[in-house]
Amino acid sequence: MEKLMIEGGKVLKGKISVSGAKNSAVALIPAAILAESPVTIEQLPNISDVHTLSELLEEIGGEVTLENTKLTVDPSKMVAMPLPSGKVKKLRASYYLMGAMLGRFKKAVVGMPGGCHLGPRPIDQHIKGFEALGAKVTNEQGAIYLRADELIGARIYLDVVSVGATINIMLAAVRAKGQTIIENAAKEPEIIDVATLLTNMGAKIKGAGTDVIRIEGVDSLHGCRHSIIPDRIEAGTFLIMAAAMGKEVIIENVIPHHIESLIAKLREMGVHIEANEDQVYVAKQDNMKSVDIKTLVYPGFPTDLQQPFTSLLTNATGTSIVTDTIYNARFKHVDELRRMGANIKVEGSAAIIEGKRQLQGARVKASDLRAGAALVVAGLMAEGITEVTGLEHIDRGYENLVSKLKGLGANVWRETMDEQEIEKMQNA
Ligand SMILES: CC(=O)N[C@H]1[C@@H](OP(=O)(O)OP(=O)(O)OC[C@H]2O[C@@H](n3ccc(=O)[nH]c3=O)[C@H](O)[C@@H]2O)O[C@H](CO)[C@@H](O)[C@@H]1O
Ligand SMILES: C=C(OP(=O)(O)O)C(=O)O
């Protein structure tokens, strides 16, 4: 087991490049199940969620080759093998195996997904969608059983705007008979990316990226090549790091339009940002002003950036309020930031941050992926050394974080933990 060491206070300068989007990748890989010939996905991030999903596709008979950032899946020999436990528990996105296998085989058995602990993460809207398409869905000992004689297109109104449910229903509906209409659909860029792959595979989808998606089912789908969009959350994390410690930082391979809500808030704080087609230039501002943020569905401020942004706000003068309307208990990072000297109170779904505080290096633990990102931001700003454990969470979503940050001049490295340290961490 390893821990991440960060010597804080170093100025960040230079270029950093964004990898392919995790939350697209984890849907595009299961989508390959729907084809009958090989699908190649390019620019994939080298993160553990991608490896876990590739292994899951192998478990159901897929021939998978993963070379650097390119994955080829030959799904022709896949079978509807039950996946009630094991690797499906390692990540959230294993729920996309439900929609994809239901679409291809008209049946699936998939264990309840894992992923970050952000409070309750129900999948009732996914199930409502599958049932509307004609599937019988039961939960037996922690696994979801889905079966349909035939999938028939339907009009589905989502009671909650959900990225996961929108994509999952799309995956099943492309192979249903007739038309499916998803109303109150989520509009995240990852949904457009998945719809683009499916369209290249022969699906008929209109309206992805708006709140009404229309799908005309087809009898079969074929292989294709697809290049994934850049990760807006990784890009956003780098922007936040640069706002905290950056002199002249250029973030490359980014679609600035995807992170407009973050850019607007950083500018409101006084951070200097210039954006062109696929690059963003950031320069730190010494007297950042406090701001309030409220997380919302896209194009609102993303919940996935709320945690790293909270760390930045400890360095802004005045009181900031961060409200998470998507996951109102997504505040596990706050206790750890307090250990580093932050003055933050959590009241209901809001965190109240009193700045400006000079954080101090400490031993902290990442409880989930973006809590980990928040602690890295805090470590870069802190005086002295910060030790971050719980790296398995960070490795789910950030490719080569250490070498990318080193490229900007940060002093960060990984160290193997000894047995005593592991025991101490587990008992903490
Ligand atoms: C693998 C993946 O892409 N994960 C992302 C996805 O997670 P996830 O798929 O969990 O998030 P959703 O967009 O589905 O959920 C949004 C909100 O709807 C609620 N809800 C969702 C589904 C459902 O059936 N019932 C229900 O009530 C959730 O509890 C949450 O409050 O979107 C989140 C919100 O942008 C991001 O934080 C995660 O990074
Ligand atoms: C919460 C996240 O991931 P997951 O849904 O995979 O747990 C995330 O990407 O911030």
From TrEMBL:
Pfam families: EPSP_synthase
Binding site for phosphoenolpyruvate: 22-23
EC top class, as a word: transferase
GO molecular function: UDP-N-acetylglucosamine 1-carboxyvinyltransferase activity
Coiled coil: none
Residues with PTM 2-(S-cysteinyl)pyruvic acid O-phosphothioketal: 116
Annotated residues for binding of UDP-N-acetyl-alpha-D-glucosamine: 92, 121-125, 304, 326
SUPFAM superfamilies named among the record's database cross-references: EPT/RTPC-like (SSF55205)
Residue span(s) of domain Enolpyruvate transferase: 7-405
Catalyzed reactions per annotation: phosphoenolpyruvate + UDP-N-acetyl-alpha-D-glucosamine = UDP-N-acetyl-3-O-(1-carboxyvinyl)-alpha-D-glucosamine + phosphate
GO biological process terms, semicolon-separated: cell division; cell wall organization; peptidoglycan biosynthetic process; regulation of cell shape; UDP-N-acetylgalactosamine biosynthetic process
Record GO cellular component, one term: cytoplasm
Signal peptide boundaries: none
Pathway(s) the chain acts in: Cell wall biogenesis; peptidoglycan biosynthesis
Transmembrane segments: none
Alphabetical keyword list: Cell cycle, Cell division, Cell shape, Cell wall biogenesis/degradation, Cytoplasm, Peptidoglycan synthesis, Pyruvate, Transferase
Family annotation (HAMAP family): MurA
General function of this protein: Cell wall formation. Adds enolpyruvyl to UDP-N-acetylglucosamine.
Stated name of the protein: UDP-N-acetylglucosamine 1-carboxyvinyltransferase
Source organism (scientific name): Lottiidibacillus patelloidae
